[in-house]
Design a protein that fits this description.
The complex is a heterodimer of chains A (490) and B (303).
Chain A: E1 29-32, E2 34-35, H1 48-66, E3 71-72, E4 75-76, E5 78-81, E6 86-89, E7 92-94, H2 99-120, H3 123-128, H4 130-146, H5 149-157, H6 162-187, H7 193-202, H8 207-227, H9 229-235, H10 237-241, E8 252-255, H11 257-260, H12 272-275, H13 285-289, H14 309-321, E9 328-331, H15 333-338, H16 342-347, H17 352-373, E10 378-384, E11 391-393, E12 397-408, E13 414-421, E14 427-430, E15 435-437, E16 442-452, E17 459-471, E18 476-488
Antiparallel strand pairs in A: 3-4, 5-6, 6-7, 8-9, 10-12, 11-12, 12-16, 13-15, 13-17, 14-16, 17-18
Helix pairs in contact in A: 1-4, 2-17, 4-6, 4-8, 6-8
Chain B: H1 8-33, E1 35-38, E2 43-48, E3 52-55, E4 59-60, H2 62-80, H3 95-118, H4 122-125, H5 129-142, H6 144-147, H7 171-180, E5 182-186, H8 190-193, H9 196-209, H10 216-222, H11 227-233, H12 259-268, E6 270-274, H13 283-297
Classes of the chains: A alpha+beta (490), B mainly alpha (303).
Chain lengths: 490, 303
């Protein structure tokens, strides 16, 4: 593409990271394959994108920390009971057999990611990913205890002192407390959180509960406190394959090199035309606020999580020096190259890639919700008996045996009637006319089908089971059809 | 390891595992030493498709630590567990041993549960829903293969839900059947009965005992031939539970229904076996299982 481009306009250079390059000489350098980790001290930032991020921090975390405390009738509203293999989500009771809904949810999540990424890059990474959200919370705690960037750098370079010891201990105390609360909340989705709370304070948690509270807590503490951007840079697979969703119309955090260069500091009163300087005052704040420690002025880099912190801080600087905002902003490669207005840029959102992602997303979402809304209050599996092929019973009937697993997915007792059709003079025998399955329980019931001897030639015949459900008040709760086969042996 | 006659393969496999680990260590060492030639912009100078340049983005050094942990883990694992050739490992772990330990643990946990039922009379055990749920699972795992998941049996495998018993339907007798197994033996009787026509007549007489469809003339001709059968099945054909001779007067045909099936039994006889469950199941389990089977044909008044 570059070669066919005859314009003389400046193109944002894509310059790779300088990390690991040593002994730069004119010919090149010998770069090591491993590099020491450089600790990053991001400066705090205020602005529209920071507000959005904090909005998502509150939204996601209020849901995460509060959801398990909600009650629904006599039970926890959202509870994944792995032991009993029942999954409660408000009014819905799911069985392991409903796994397809999880598949649907994951497909929706994947296509939402694809869609957002195609439109505006790593929005998920920059605003809603737990790694970002918890890092943001941990950095907020760190800032409250140790101060902002310069104070933290100073503190870390100091020798150990009482002040340093107190600050560090206090910070880790808060981090660990928050982490344990996080781990506790996580476990609260799998074991009733109110009982867990009692057990926690009485020291009576089971060993697995203790393990998961502390393991999840430790992961939070380690990832949000220490690993931070390294998770995104070296571990996260999404960070790597997201580039497949990018194109030249994807909104990314962009430095307007044409406007900014040549960069340089200047006095406030200086005249730009005579100085031969661009808008960039080279204050390096964009580098200081970056949570991954890159310089956005080098162009799009794989480390960039699209959080917009540099755009926020640059806007405040531009306001201060009296230049128009937007030296660093969300824009697309095409928009920068062709000097599009925002309206023109936005129009390019509607391109095949985005429309296809949207189409699939709408389709899968409506399928999932349609299926959830029309869901029956029970499920049935028909299993032909594995031991006996067929048998002759007194009266000269040929009998096949079936085991029906009736799963009551409602939180009330249900009564079931089993019927079957598909063969001449087919008789259905159950142990009881009224098969009762208690609330959210499942039960195996054996059902015998009989046909008169010699009423059909030896072979396999399809039969259809019809299972009707009703509740204690004899209100019909729906009907299911299941297929099976009837065997007549030679 | 009896498959191998010499120690060669054990040493060979152990050698490959250890050489592999050492090779990983060496790779790690040399990759730490090696440097990539990069231009000033940190690219290696390799270019594809005109503009795709290879960069050197170094991993953080602590990553090497993770590799070292896996190597330490591998060595520790090989020392503790069987993995290095035919070495049994310091812990002496084996899959059989783990299985047996788990079974022993489960049995120990279940002991108090079974102990509760062991002291109860079978009538009460059969009424206990928990015991019946246990019995149902035991039945599904140990009995349903032959007797069917609904316990109604099949050709050659008795129905356990009716009141017809080959060896007796009391709880004690059922338990005896479970513990020791049973061997049913119907000898070939064709020679004792007489000609093929005699056998056919006899089969109609047997059918007539239960009032099944039969030829009355043949039945009357066959009646005298029943003498050969009476030794086991009794004069009246009602069978004998002490030797497991079935009752021929009910309309229950374990080995097939109708004239031809009866002729085949008389001509060929049959040996039918119920395998002993002693040793497979504990005494407490057998008590619950026998109560469950007893309960199948002694249902309390329908709920």
């Amino acid at each position: 593409m570059e070669s066919s481009d005859k314009t003389t306009r400046k193109v944002i250079p894509i310059v790779p990271s300088q990390e690991g390059a040593h002994d730069a000489s004119e010919d090149g350098a010998w770069g090591e394959l491993y590099a020491a980790h450089q600790k990053i001290y991001p400066r705090s930032v205020q602005g529209i994108f920071a507000k959005w991020r904090w909005g998502f921090v509150f939204l996601t975390q209020i849901i995460f920390y509060c959801l398990p405390w909600l009650e629904w009738g006599q039970r926890q509203a959202v509870l994944f009971d792995l032991g009993a293999r029942r999954f409660y989500i408000f009014g819905i009771v799911l069985y392991p057999q409903d796994f397809i809904y999880l598949t649907g949810l994951l497909v929706i999540s994947a296509f939402s990611l694809f869609l957002f990424t195609a439109i505006a890059g790593r929005l998920w990474c920059g605003y809603a990913c737990p790694q970002t959200v918890y890092s943001e919370i941990f950095m907020w705690i760190e800032r409250k205890v140790e101060g902002d960037r310069t104070a933290r750098i100073r503190l870390d370079s100091q020798d150990m002192s009482l002040e340093k010891l107190v600050k560090k201990w206090y910070k880790h105390f808060l981090w660990i407390g928050f982490s344990i609360w996080t781990g506790f909340t996580f476990v609260g989705y799998f074991t009733p959180i109110r009982e867990l709370g009692m057990e926690f304070f009485l020291g009576r948690m089971s060993s697995w509960e203790v393990f998961w509270v502390f393991f999840y807590g430790f992961a939070t503490y380690g990832n949000a406190g220490f690993m931070r951007e390294q998770v995104c840079k070296y571990m996260c697979p999404y960070a790597r394959f997201q580039s497949a969703m990018f194109d030249k119309d994807t909104l990314i955090v962009t430095y307007d090199a044409e406007r900014g260069e040549p960069r340089g500091s200047r006095s406030k009163k200086a005249d730009l035309t005579t100085l031969n300087l661009g808008s960039c005052v080279d204050c390096s704040l964009c580098v200081q606020v970056c949570p991954t420690g890159i310089d956005i002025r080098k162009g799009l880099q794989y480390e960039c999580i699209g959080c917009g912190a540099c755009a926020d801080v640059c806007d405040t600087v531009m306001d201060k020096v009296g230049y128009p905002r937007g030296l660093v902003k969300y824009s697309t490669e095409h928009a920068m190259k062709n000097h599009w207005t925002s309206a023109q840029t936005l129009r390019h959102i509607f391109r095949p890639r985005v429309l296809i992602y949207t189409g699939i997303l709408v389709l899968v979402t409506s399928l999932l919700f349609g299926s959830l809304l029309t869901r029956k209050s029970f499920k049935v599996d028909v299993v032909r008996d594995r031991a006996s092929l067929a048998r002759i019973v007194s009266g000269g009937n040929i009998e096949n045996v079936y085991r029906l697993q009736i799963m009551n997915a409602a939180e009330k007792r249900q009564h079931f009637k089993v019927n079957a059709t598909g063969m001449y003079d087919l008789k259905v025998m159950t142990d009881s006319e009224d098969l009762i399955v208690e609330s959210t329980q499942s039960r195996w019931v054996s059902v015998r089908l009989q046909v008169p001897y010699d009423s059909a030639a030896p072979g396999t015949y399809p039969v259809h089971f019809t299972i009707e459900a009703s509740d204690d008040d004899q209100t019909a709760q729906g009907k299911l059809d299941e297929k099976s086969v009837f065997l007549i042996p030679r | 390891m009896s498959d191998f006659t010499s120690n060669f393969w054990s040493v060979y496999v152990a050698g490959i595992a250890l050489v592999g680990i050492v090779a990983c260590l060496l790779l790690l060492y040399f990759s730490g030493k090696a440097k990539a030639m990069t231009a000033n912009d940190n690219t290696t100078g390799h270019v594809w498709d005109g503009d795709l340049r290879e960069m050197n983005n170094p991993l953080p050094r602590w990553w090497v630590g993770l590799f070292l942990i896996t190597i330490v883990f591998a060595l520790g694992y090989l020392a503790l567990y069987p993995g290095l050739g035919n070495s049994a490992g310091k812990l002496g772990w084996s899959s059989t041993g783990q299985y047996e330990a788990e079974v022993a643990k489960a049995n120990k946990e279940l002991e108090p549960l079974y102990a509760k039922f062991a002291g109860m009379p079978p009538e009460d055990v059969a009424k206990d829903p928990q015991a019946m749920a246990i019995g149902d699972r035991l039945f599904m795992n140990n009995c349903a293969q032959c007797h069917g998941s609904d316990a109604r049996g099949s050709k050659g495998f008795p129905n356990l839900t009716d009141t017809d018993w080959l060896h007796g339907g009391s709880h004690d007798k059922i338990k005896e059947t479970l513990v020791k197994g049973r061997m049913g033996n119907m000898p070939p009787m064709a020679a004792a009965v007489g000609s093929a026509e005699d056998v056919r007549n006899l089969s109609h007489y047997v059918l007539s005992l239960s009032n099944s469809p039969h030829d009355a003339l043949r039945a009357s001709l066959g009646k005298s031939k029943f003498v050969s059968c009476a030794a086991c099945h009794g004069q009246d054909g009602k069978g004998n539970q002490t030797i497991g001779a079935p009752n021929l007067t009910d309309d229950i045909w374990l080995h097939g229904w109708g004239e031809n099936a009866i002729i085949a039994m008389v001509n060929n006889g049959k040996v039918n076996q119920m395998p002993a469950q002693e040793g497979k199941l504990t005494d407490a389990q057998l008590h619950v299982l026998a109560s469950y089977v007893w309960g199948l044909s002694n249902k309390p008044a329908a709920k």
